[in-house]
Amino acid sequence: xxxxxWLIIALPLLGAxxxxxxxxxxxxxxxxxxxxGAIASSFVVALVAAIPFFQGGEHGSTVLVWEWMPAIGANLxxxxxxxxxxxxMVVTGVGALIHVFAIGYMHGDERFxxxxxxxxxxxxxxxxxxxxxxxxxxxxxxxxVGLCSYLLIGFWFVRPSAASAxxxxxxxxxxxxxxxxxxxxxxxxxxxxxSYAGVFERAGAELTTGMATAIALLLFAxxxxxxxxxxxxxxxxxAMEGPAPVSALIHAATMVTAGIYLIARSAAIFELSPAAQTxxxxxxxxxxxxxxxxxxxxxDIKKVLAYSTISQLGxxxxxxxxxxxxxxxxxxxxxxxxxxxxxxxxxxxxxxMNGEQDMAKMGGLFKKMRLTxxxxxxxxxxxxxxxxxxxxxxxxxxxASVFERGGWFSVLWxxxxxxxxxxxxxxxxxFMLIFLGKPRWDGGVDPHESPRVxxxxxxxxxxxxxxxxxxxxxxxxxxxxxxxxxxxxxxxxQPPENVLILVVVALLSVLAGAAGILAAWLTYRRPPQDWQxxxxxxxxxxxVWEDAYGVDDIYGRVLVAPGKRAADATAFGFDLPVxxxxxxxxxxxxxxFGAWVRPLQTGYVRNYGALFLxxxxxxxxxxxxxxx
Length: 628
Hints:
By secondary structure, the protein is mainly α. It has helices at 6-22, 30-49, 51-55, 82-105, 112-131, 135-153, 160-191, 196-206, 209-226, 235-238, 244-253, 258-265, 267-270, 274-296, 301-321, 325-352, 370-383, 390-405, 408-435, 452-467, 478-483, 499-524, 528-537, 541-546, 551-597, 605-626; strands at residues 61-69, 74-80. A hairpin with a 4-residue loop joins strand 1 and strand 2. Helix 4 packs antiparallel against helix 11, helix 16 (325-352) packs antiparallel against helix 18 (390-405) and helix 17 packs parallel to helix 20 (452-467).
């Protein structure tokens, strides 16, 4: 199968191309099923090709597809190793379920086929990123993912908010990508190649600590943009303007996991810089706490989940910064399950509520949408870290590994523990405001359960959220054994070996999540006027959280407004009078000269003969005077 792994990318790419040109001729829902079949087929190819890794002992190999820029180690080549296989299965597996859900969610949309063309292209771009055998091809997939996010976030571009959110996501990511591009330049300057083999095998011998730190932090700048970490996280909440399946695909299976993958793939470089590792871990922990506090007070169901994603990505960045790569990737997988479930569940709720996203206008939906309520309840407990669900095993492994490092990492562990408590609170608040209590709907709303094409993916994801954590437990480290060949030369942080310490750390994490759940239950089981009064009593901090600490306003005043003024000054103070003036001046000069010589073109032969004779006389006189 190693010779045909290119099919993993080719199948959704072909689906995107076909739907782009012929989708208008295929009636709904067949274009959706075609796109779903394409990515599901990629999952089958990835699963079969990964069988040797499941059996153990196989380290993987590189397959050359096309010679692109061989002189700099930038061919179109695919690295098929356990890490690439793991990411490919997560992207295609969860992505296929999201595709199927979207068939029901996008029903009746006039650009139905175009939407699925974009979804397939998004998946193909992410797969290009994770299967790349060198940094140049990875960067190609990296930028294509950014393009697809722009297309999908702004899919309903007739809404000004959607068009603005798409531009914001695109521009903010370009900031991080600028750092990534400089990192690639430094890598080429240091090694003379961009191939993984040429970089990772020589990194320990040829990179100084200073150069390793510079490259690692610049790579991390790219990861900060894609994986929405402080200070470039501001694009992700606005990305909710896209359809719910887009939110699920971005948050669970594709774009935001790219930064985690980049750090894990570049572990050989990060290992040479303890300073970079500490910075990465610190940014991850602070992002987790920062975003969790904002999620507490949001009323928009998708905004809560957006800040939740930023917080959970912070956990993953904390893990890879601590060199707990197995734990970070484990949480990436379980998070893909329960966060896709949460976003698709939110989509089911929004679909039933005729587009309403304000949780204050919901309530009592469990009686109307039992299946959606049960599956979202499972996802809520999973993200809160309640055993034996998936989030418990992966999040606790992260916190245990951070605790084991000691020193400054002990402070980061405390931050992670506090974040676990807050996570339990805001997720329980979300569930209760939507499904419990008395209805608070506006008139004309008739909530109903979603069709089977939408609920079946919810059921599958609920099962995965329940049992997915069993892939890596202290009793059986299946996922760790699977990924180990990709990190055999890297020092990977592990949870404490002392069973008592491990149990105590895990118990503290569970108690933190349970405390958050209990606090939310005691708060929101009361009548709306009571919990609304409580929220008002927490002012001004509640308002600060609701306004996301005013970061967007600060960026607007400090960066955007001066940038606009500079652009206006440049456009109307220099470009218009100088650049355009020079071009227009040349045009006016030519036009004036033409107007001056135009009378010479009379159309009469006698006039032209006279001019010719006059010119000849001038030439003869000049020759005589010159003495020729």
